[in-house]
Amino acid sequence: MNNDILPGFDDDISNSLSITLQRVEGVEACLALKMRGQIDTYSSLYFQRSAKKAIAAGFIHLLLVLDGVEYVSSMGVGALIQVQKAAVEEGGEISLVDVHPKIMEILRLLCLEKYFSCTESVGDAVAPMKSHENAVTFPRVVPCPVCEKRLRLVRPGRFRCPECKTTHVIADTGTAELP
pTM of the predicted model, to two decimals? Predict the structure, then answer.
């Protein structure tokens, strides 16, 4: 079943950790990895390879559902950090979902609960991603409505075209409009 979502995913296995993939509807490039077992010295590399396979396939937003994981070793914490870095480098992130209290305590002791987005449910993890999909990010490049010169906009507000000297109002949506 995992191979239907990500071909070749099930080619790699671990004795102490199983990962089940599930598409997340309504969010582009998002995949849930439901894990069962332990992320320890033996399975941390398997976990890292599996998560990075998903990121390389374009799933840059990963929801790590940890309700079936009762133990994470220091190697496992390091693997979580490496996967987070890999996702961020591609413009995504990981969210830890339904984290076991023992694991949450480890993250708190290491001051990592702020490094990861931790939520109670997949719905809670997906909600901010849905709102970000409709948000416009700056800087962005748009054509001047008067002279068609490509304008690099860095934030909403007033902007003067260097070519035709026309002042434009840059909306929160990222469009250049005449005042």
Answer: 0.72
